[in-house]
Specification:
This protein has 269 residues and is an alpha+beta fold. The protein is 42% helix and 18% strand. The strands form three sheets. It has a six-stranded mixed beta sheet, with helices on one face. A three-stranded antiparallel beta sheet has the order 7-9-10. A two-stranded antiparallel sheet has the order 8-11.
Length: 269
């Protein structure tokens, strides 16, 4: 672990951290004040673990201390995000949705490292953190989380076009903090919500800037069609159930709750 980094300009911002240039070949991910150091350490460990599976993931170079906070030094991936490319060329939304599905299906073919937490445990924790919004539905939502008897699959947990960099060598997948061992259809439901759930949850996309709802809907529908065709275990009723549960869990992430509550309450009809 090193110290004394000289950070360059900010080249990325997220809900939990900022990303600074470090020379020409590396970047530093710096947590925001309300982000625990343990989260940064976990993200570095998860990223290294999934990269070892041969997936297109930035290399983790170092853990360091900067201004008293733990930071991570990553390989710098040059290129624009898939989302910015779509915003520049909205006509690419459909083929980019198909590409995003291919990337997600690739992730799911890999055996998940045991270092990753179980998806069910993460979702149960988030749902319980949402008790102020869910009220009496909290434990009902937790009880609906199934225990899988099948082999668990690698789930990204935050796969959307803002977390894909279109580099000269091909797409690269970022932000593995929410990675888990879980059920593939649940991870697809999470990605659907992150892309606005096909127009049902536009407020759930603060990570996709600038906002382009029409492009997001085209991207979402293209992605969902391709991933459902490519995933042998995909079941539309199961997917709908997972959308509701993932929406209940997303309430814990500090965004306006109306759309997520609407998705969750769809389970009552």
């Amino acid at each position: 672990m090193s110290d004394g980094l000289t950070l360059g300009r900010v080249i990325g911002r997220g809900a939990r951290s900022t990303v600074h240039a470090l020379g020409r070949e590396r970047v530093v991910k710096v947590p925001l004040p309300n982000t625990p150091d343990a989260w940064i350490r976990c993200e570095a460990e998860f990223s290294a673990a999934v990269r070892s599976l041969g997936l297109p993931v930035p290399e983790v170079h170092d853990l360091a201390v900067h201004d008293g906070r733990l930071v991570v030094v990553y390989e710098r991936i040059r290129g624009r995000s898939m989302w910015l490319r779509i915003c520049d060329q909205p006509s690419t939304a459909v083929p980019m949705g198909e590409l995003l599905a291919q990337l997600h299906l690739l992730v799911m073919t890999r055996t998940p490292p045991m270092a990753l937490p179980r998806q069910r445990d993460r979702l149960a924790c988030k749902i319980r953190m949402s008790a102020a919004e869910l009220g009496d539905d909290t434990e009902r939502a937790v009880a609906r989380l199934p225990y899988s008897s099948s082999p668990l699959q690698l789930c990204h947990g935050d796969l959307h076009p803002g977390n894909v960099i279109m580099s000269a060598d091909g797409p690269v997948l970022l932000d593995w903090f929410d990675a888990s061992r879980g059920i593939a259809v649940a991870d697809v439901a999470r990605s659907s919500i992150l892309m606005g759930a096909g127009g049902r949850a536009d407020s759930s996309m603060p990570h996709l800037m600038p906002h382009d709802r029409q492009a997001a809907r085209a991207l979402h529908d293209s992605y969902l069609g391709a991933v459902s065709n490519g995933l042998a275990s995909f079941d539309h009723d199961e997917f709908a159930g997972w959308v509701r549960l993932e929406a209940a869990a997303r309430l814990a992430e500090g965004f306006p709750p109306e759309d997520m509550l609407s998705l969750w309450r769809a389970s009552d009809h």
